[in-house]
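Assemble and predict.
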Amino acid sequence: MIKVSVLYPNAAGVRFDLDYYCDTHMALVRECLGAACKGIAVDHGLAGGAPGEPAPFVAVGHLLFDSLEAFQQAFAPHAERIMGDLPNFTNATPVLQISEVCLS
Amino acid sequence: MIKVSVLYPNAAGVRFDLDYYCDTHMALVRECLGAACKGIAVDHGLAGGAPGEPAPFVAVGHLLFDSLEAFQQAFAPHAERIMGDLPNFTNATPVLQISEVCLS
């Protein structure tokens, strides 16, 4: 199983509308990716490792696919529409991590 | 639900023994944290967002807890033992992200 994680870095002045992200943006992602997307998860950053330290990421979205090819085929035709929705909930530039799920 | 994510940054010269991490280290984590830890997952970084770009993180471990307090109480007495195992599988300094699971 392949996990595509979209990490939104935390920083001074970062704007992130968590409700919009979980509800509206993820509904768009679901509609675009269809059955190829096997699961969606959202983490909301609360804290870092040291006392009082902010979370390194304000939010992280995770999408599951059977394979890298399945992700690429599902995402490519909708990339522009999905990425074009980002300014509606954040001014952060996300970091993308594609992983193999080893343990879950 | 609280997710504690331990992100191991990728970099030139990084060493990471994925088998040891998944098997030996996570067995130690399970033993130390006991029933407070509601779930364990491991992602192995494959790629970044751009073609040919390496994964930002060589691996990410996720631990689930009912609350921040449950994590802190379970982890504190074993922190030294768990952190002391890191040199056995990596030379990376992990980044810690504590999140609330909003969608799963």
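The beta strands of chain B are 2-9, 39-47, 57-65, 95-103.
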